[in-house]
């Protein structure tokens, strides 16, 4: 719940009474940390694959970097956020985690994976890059 309070810019003590009035679904992550969701929000099956997605500079999804969550592997953090650029670089996700960077140059999307990608993932990234290129045109 502290993360919700931090995100909202209010104190934890102020948030607790509001959270208590809501009917929320409660979960635990792999480390036992409490997770909250709306009661009727749809949940995908555990085996549902996460498609490749491109995130722009300063996408709110990446702000979870401060909480060391799985979307931004720690080994890539300095490649996405650093002291010389106080914002993130555009990134792409493979299976729900940051796997590289991208940029729009000369009418094309250039991708730079942080490591080798399985062929199926590379195909997904390339397909998504083509859709993003079309959006830019």
Describe this structure in words.
It is a single chain. This protein is 28% helix and 23% strand. It is an alpha+beta fold and 137 residues long. Strand 5 and strand 6 form a beta hairpin. The model has no long low-confidence stretch (mean pLDDT 87).
Helix percent band: 25-40%
Order of neighbouring strands in the sheet with most strands? 3-4-5-6
- Overall shape: it is globular
Biggest sheet character:
4 strands, antiparallel
Unreliable stretches: none
**N-C termini distance:** 42 Å
Total of helices: 4
Secondary-structure element series: HHEEEHEEEH
Structural class of the secondary structure composition?
alpha+beta
- Residue fraction in strands: 15-25%
Overall strand count: 6
Task: Please provide a brief summary of the model.
The protein is of the alpha+beta class and 137 residues long.
Features:
single chain, 28% helix, 4 helices, alpha+beta
Note the topology.
Elements: H1 2-8, H2 12-21, E1 24-28, E2 34-38, E3 53-55, H3 77-80, E4 91-94, E5 97-105, E6 108-113, H4 119-136
Antiparallel strand pairs: 1-2, 3-4, 4-5, 5-6
């Amino acid at each position: 719940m502290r993360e919700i309070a931090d995100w909202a810019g209010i104190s934890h003590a102020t948030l607790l009474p509001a959270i208590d009035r809501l009917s929320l679904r409660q979960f635990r992550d792999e480390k036992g940390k409490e997770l909250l969701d709306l009661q009727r929000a749809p949940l995908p099956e555990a085996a549902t694959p996460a498609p490749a997605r491109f995130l722009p500079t300063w996408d709110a999804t990446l702000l979870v970097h401060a909480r060391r969550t799985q979307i931004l592997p720690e080994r890539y953090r300095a490649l996405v956020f650093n002291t010389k650029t106080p914002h993130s670089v555009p990134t792409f996700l493979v299976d729900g985690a940051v796997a590289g960077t991208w940029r729009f140059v000369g009418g094309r999307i250039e991708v730079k994976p942080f490591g080798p990608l399985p062929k199926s993932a590379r195909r997904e990234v390339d397909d998504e890059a083509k859709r993003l290129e079309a959006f830019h045109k």
